[in-house]
Amino acid sequence: MTLTAAPPEERVTHQRARPRKGWRYAGTVAVFLLPSLVPLTLYTIIPMLGSLWTSLHEWDLITEMRWVGLGNYIELIGDPGTRAAFLHTLSFIAGYLPLVYAGGLGLALLLNRAPRSTGSGRSLLRGIYFLPVITSWVVVALMWKWLLNPASGIVNWALGLFGISGPGWWTDPAWAMPSVILASAWKDLGFVMIILLAGLQAIPREYQEAAMVDGATAWRRFRHITLPLLSPSTFFVVVISLINGFQVFDQVKIMTNGGPGGATQVVVSQIYDLTFRYGRAGAASALSWLLFAVVLIVTIIQIRGQKRWVTYG
Amino acid sequence: MSHFPGSRNAAIATVAAVALLASACSQGSATRAPSGADGKATVRYFTFSAAPDHLKDLDTIEKAFEKENPKVDVVVETAPFEEYFTKLQTSIAGGTAPDAFELNYENFVTYASAGSLLDLGTVAGDGDTSVYAQESLNAFQQDGKQYALPASFSTVVLFYNKDLFKKAGVAEPTADWTWADEQAAAAELTDRKKGVYGDFQPVQFFEFYKTLKQAGGEFLSADGKKATFNSPEGVKAAKWLVGKVGKSMPTEAEIGGAADYDTNLFKSGKLAMWHNGIWQFAGLKDVPFEWDVVVEPGDANKASAVFHNAVAISSGTKAGKDAYAWARFLSSSNVAATTRIQSSWELPPVADQQVLSGYLKDPKPANRQAVFDSLKSIALPPVIKRQQEMQDAVTKQLTEAAAGRTSVEDALKAAAADVDALLG
């Protein structure tokens, strides 16, 4: 996925009158693009087309493919398992997105307020918060599985100190998805924080000072200056997090494997099971394309809708 | 204060994010076995039953084979059972299938009907098959063709901790025990305060089809077109399994997803009775307490689960003859049979009772005869084309009932509907 922030209107008009450069120029561009185009074609575009072809077949990986046309799509759309998988994915996003954004924003605001004199301390904190982002999901998921272990986990032990009997976390269908959400938000907090912190630091201090002179409260300054000027970063974070949210898999596979009782079976884990457990690579490919369609539609809506709320300073 | 425009930050972040994604997506390429150094033919053999307890034993068999066949180099690849079939499937799809590989009885039908297996008649020559126990050999035939050679079999028995029985003053299990005897003993042996449990039997498909048979029920109709386990016998069997959870065995939440929980519980001397396979014998050699085995208690019938593993040859192999020689050696040679028996690595499916009787010489567990007794009334797993989906559907519903989220009756009804749909 490549995402380009749309340039402001007036800049577009400057660039419009670009002279035609002809084939020589196109050739030069092609040569420079080649290093990224070749792997993109080999490892993304060709496999995608391959999966489109596979999605029109019944294929168990060990026998010849059998043409079924749109049969897989029709079956999947009518299948309660598919609906459940999409619903679980949406409920993951509904919990994950607000949590990771609010958490990331809170951290970014705190770090942004730290006085300059704490320079190296601030970098250190930034590094620490970013650490989970670059840590392997296997490590993070196993760690959270231990923390949230209903019998011997430290979280339930700590709750016990306050006389609260902790829930069954990932062994309880009602708490399994919140467990996965918690682990995911914790891991991605640093990513959101870094983007938002960069956005915060790009807001000219003069605006805040002018508002302060006018007697605006901290909340009003936040609401009417910080938030609107942060909206391009917010937009980027939301688009990326939503796409990641739709593709949630690693943490589910390791923490719950879709259970208990299918309560955390999301779209990608369904795709995995269809291919590798049930030998239905055709149906799995079709489900991948359904997921792609949903992500594409949601992203288009977001990019169209950004005009209403994203302010480019 | 830096004054980068926001869009530039976003662009930098995008590049960083894409770089992260790219590094996350890059994978190691599959390695292929080296082919034919110094003119040797290579046979790649893929197995699940050797690791981790019996790698040395497989090595012994391999060395003996290579001594007899100096022109063949056997390369062993292993994977744990849970991952084995995923890897096998993908390697076949990717055209890198091993030359020879292990298959269990439940998956044999799928692979044989898919045309992935070499008809052994084409490479066997005048190979004599009288060394094999005939029923084992027949299990791996389809349409009159032999597609795999039986390599080992194992049964499930009731393991028990003699020390715990003595301490609690409970009489040890005998071959005549029924479910009621087991239940009564389990209740007395369980001491949750000390973390001691009376009886562990996993709540899943394989235990269910067997206990169903013990209760006198059938899993599928005679023509194999309908699920018949949603019956009074089915309810009885499911209740027998589900009823242990939270009483004589811990709940799912108490187990907390720990790997090999039951094995470790038994090894730590805190489990009195344990339903498991004879492949556990080798791992229990050095436990600091006395233990033994008996044939599993029955209800209306006695029924024991038997698992069969075989060696098949990939239909796409270029080393068919050499792979066959290896498959034959591994499944029926004297070295293989005695190595298996000496190390309690399941049982060789050989016809010669003399060879098998060696199995009884090992003093631990004392009642090894129970392994042979359990073969007198066996319960073979139901096998359908969409096997894994059926197993998952049944296990899922039973787990729901065990956690108390649904009644046993509703769980069986739902599972039967799922299985009927799969048979469709």
Automatic annotation (TrEMBL), chain A:
Q: How does it sit in the membrane?
A: Multi-pass membrane protein
Pfam families under this entry? Answer: BPD_transp_1
Report the subcellular localization: Cell membrane
ABC transmembrane type-1 domain location is: 86-302
Q: Return the CDD domains for the record.
A: TM_PBP2
* Keywords for this protein: Cell membrane, Membrane, Transmembrane, Transmembrane helix, Transport
Bilayer-spanning residue ranges: 25-46, 85-111, 123-144, 175-198, 229-249, 281-301
A single GO BP term for this record reads:
transmembrane transport
Classify the main location.
membrane
SUPFAM superfamilies referenced in this protein's UniProt entry, alphabetically: MetI-like
Q: Which GO terms describe its cellular component?
A: plasma membrane
Write out the similarity annotation: Belongs to the binding-protein-dependent transport system permease family.
State what protein this is by name: Sugar ABC transporter permease
Organismal lineage: Bacteria, Bacillati, Actinomycetota, Actinomycetes, Streptosporangiales
TrEMBL record, chain B:
Mention one GO biological process in which this protein takes part, according to its record.
Answer: transmembrane transport
Cleavable signal peptide: 1-24
Q: Which Pfam families match?
A: SBP_bac_1
Alphabetized UniProt keyword annotations: Cell membrane, Lipoprotein, Membrane, Palmitate, Signal, Transport
Q: Which family does it belong to?
A: Belongs to the bacterial solute-binding protein 1 family.
Quote the protein name from its UniProt record: Sugar ABC transporter substrate-binding protein
